[in-house]
Structures are given as C-alpha cells and as structure tokens.
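Researcher: Here's the sequence for the chain we discussed earlier.
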Amino acid sequence: MSITTPDDRISTYNPVAATTQFAAGFPVFDNADIGVIVNDVERFDFTVTATYTNGISIDAKAIFSTGVTGDVIIFGKRAPHRTARFTDGAPLPAKDQNLALDTMEAEIQEAARENRRAHKAPYGEEGGVFTASDVGNAQANAASAAASAALAAKWAENGDLDVTPGKRASEYWARKAQEWAIGGVAGVGSFNSRTGPVTAQTGDYSSDQVSRGGGSVEDALDAIESDITATKGLLLSGIEDLLLSNNSGNPNTHIDIGTGKARVGSAVVANLATLTKRLNGTWVAGGGNGGLDTGVSAANGTYFLYALRKVSDGSFDAVFSTSATIAGVNVSLLAGYSIVKCIGVVLTNASSIIRPFVMYPKDEYTFVTPVKDAVGVSISTTSNLFALTVPNGVKSKAKLRFEFTSSATTNAALLSDAAQGVLTAGIGDDGGNLGTMQVASGFAIGSQEIWTNTSRQIRRVAGASGSLWVWTDGFHFPCGRNA
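Model: Thanks. This is the structure I predict for it:
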C-alpha cells in the first residue's frame, strides 16, 4: 500500500532572465489540468508537454513561445469529471482503480486549496455574499478608510478649541469660515476688517495666493503637500555603512559590500550580510556572481556601484556601471529590481584589475599604493590641465602630495581646482602651494586636497619653468552618506 502526502498542486517560480519552460511539480491527468499565472495575470498563450503512463504524467511542463520573467505560478485546475467507468462484473485492475482514485484525490486537493483561500465566517454564523464589485473595490475602500482614520487622528490631536492659538485643526477653521460666510459675526471685523456676512470682493485674494498648483485653494494645498513630500524624500535620502573593500580571496576582480542600508525617500533597501560582486562578469543576482550592467571591465576604468532592491521581497543586491547617474545604468539584466542609490565607486588600472583601496566612512577612499600621476612633468608660467587617478564623470576631491624643482630661485608652483579658471603663480599674483626654492634646482614639497572637474583634471602653473611630481593617495567621492 502506498501513501500520498497533502498537496496544494501549485509550483512557483521567479525567473529574472526570460524563461520559456515551467514544470508542474504535481501529477497531471490531462493537458487541460494545468493553469498559469504570470505577474498576477492568468495566461493562456502556452502549450503543455507531458508523458502519460497509466493515465498519469509526472513530467508535465507549460511552455511559452516567448520567455517570461517575474512571479510565475503553475497550478492545477482540473475540472471534476470521470474519464472512464468500470464495467459491471468485469475485472478491476489495480492500475485503473488507482488512476480513478488519484484523479479524485487531485480534484479534492484543489477544492481544499480553493476552500482555504475563500472567505470564511465564524462557526455557527452565515457567510457573507460578495459581488465582483465588492471584491474589486475592497482594496480601494480599505485605503479610503485608512485615509479617513488618519484625518480623524489629526483632528483629534488638534482638537476643536482647546489648542494653542494658530495651531487649530483646518477642519475647525473650515467650519468657522462656513459659519461666517453664512451669517457673519455682528459687530466684529470678520474678514479684511469688514463686519457682517462675508462676500468675496475684489482684492480679497491676489492671483499669487490662489495660483499655486493651478488656480483653486484645493490645487494650492495639493501642490504644497507635494512639495512637502518631495522635501521629506530628500531629507530622508542617504547611506548608512555599506562600505566597499577588495575581496580577500579575489582582490583583483571581486568587491565586498558591507552591511548597511540605502534610502531615497520611501525607497529603502538593507544589506544584512556582506555581499560579494564580480567586476569581470555581467550581472547575475546573488553573492559571488557577476556585477556589470553591460560589457566587460576595461583598463583605467571608473565603475559606480548602485544598490538594488528586489521588488518582490525587498532584498539587497548591487550592480556596477560606468554611468555616473542612475538614468544611464543599463537595466536590461535587472528585471524585477529597482535601482535605489549609488553607494560607491571602484577604479581599474592599466591591466583592467581593481586598484586596491581602503574605504572610510563619509565617502573617503585611500589607495593601498599611491598612484604617481606626474613624474618629472614640465610646469611653466602657462596654466595647463592634467588628469589624476580619481573617478571619471563626476567631481571628486583628490588627496594629493607633490614635489617641485626649478633652476630658478624663489620659484613657486600652484596646483588648483579647474573651476577657478586660469591662475598665475607667485606672491604678487595668485600665490602658490608648493615652493619656494631658495637654491637653484632645489626641491620643495607640499600636500593638499583639491577638487577635480568631471574629467578628473586640475590645473598646474608655476612662476617659472620647472618639473613636477604628483602622488594621488586617494579621493573623496560624495555619493550620499551625508545626505
């Protein structure tokens, strides 16, 4: 004797890449026994393949001609019916009897499944009768009830009269305005120093007072509420922890993302355990998998890292992109995920491997090995731009050390933010941050943090010709931890 186990006759899938075949993880007795729901919508544009042995298939699949992604549910939908009857007085083979009982059991399992999903009344009471409209409007009615409850709570907090002047509920003042509009307040300046019934007159409201949002008071209030929501979203935007580091086992290609959370307004995602993503592979969900939105990692590249939130369950993932903005990220591989915020950046060297770095809170990065961005390059009285090893496509503050030599005595050099434009080095002009030599061909050293332009450049100029060395120790890239 064999024993079967309870079964809801449902198989669920959540493919992030387009998938065409989905197996039914339960016995099927006819191709019509399978139903499919994709992203909450029942689909009928599929075929069924199945191999039947003694009337039962355990390898049935629903097959789409075009791949689907998202939430996929394969469910049993067998209509109760008999496919054969036994003949009186004839032998009753065990396989035929088992088939009849198995199909009946499948129908009962599906009926029990639907019964558990149905509306239930307490024992001893009659159940309610709901129309399709009742069911369809249930969510909207619940939202309306919640909004009304919130409004009632506001009025309860502010009260009617016993509140601080100037902080009474808008509902109270709306009722008072209605009373005054109908009867006025005898002997009292009820509106704009006028007594008696209030009637609108020219000059009561300016066009500026009522134009906000479209022309009516309601439009103005709606617009103000929208402004408050947007401002609140900006105030709540930021990053907590989520520090990046080279992976200890594969430092050249893998990045570890520490625990923490990112938030932009109401969109928030938390990383509950260190997640590792590969820069040398295209994006696949999960730790240890590829992280690039498209293409391959390149030499001397800049790769911004964005926090992702899985729409179905809110879980964390991340993707690398050369785009400095969310709008530029290639989302073709990111079905089922939303991009929340940029959380950091990594740079590659001439061999296309990740430069070793240490990341500190408040968006500060230090290279394990300082980068020589200038080695004995010429510097003169002509101001020139030159590039540093910092993120490309955004402004960042480079952490610099420099050395300068010149055959001219009392000579100074000036390294500066490109946004300041062309400057002139020298005590009589724009000064210097490097020098001055008191002996011909002597050396002077200095250090400073200087903002770059979006092409990674700063300016260099000297009071007289000389040679310059520059070491880049790291940079500050403010992607939002202080927001």
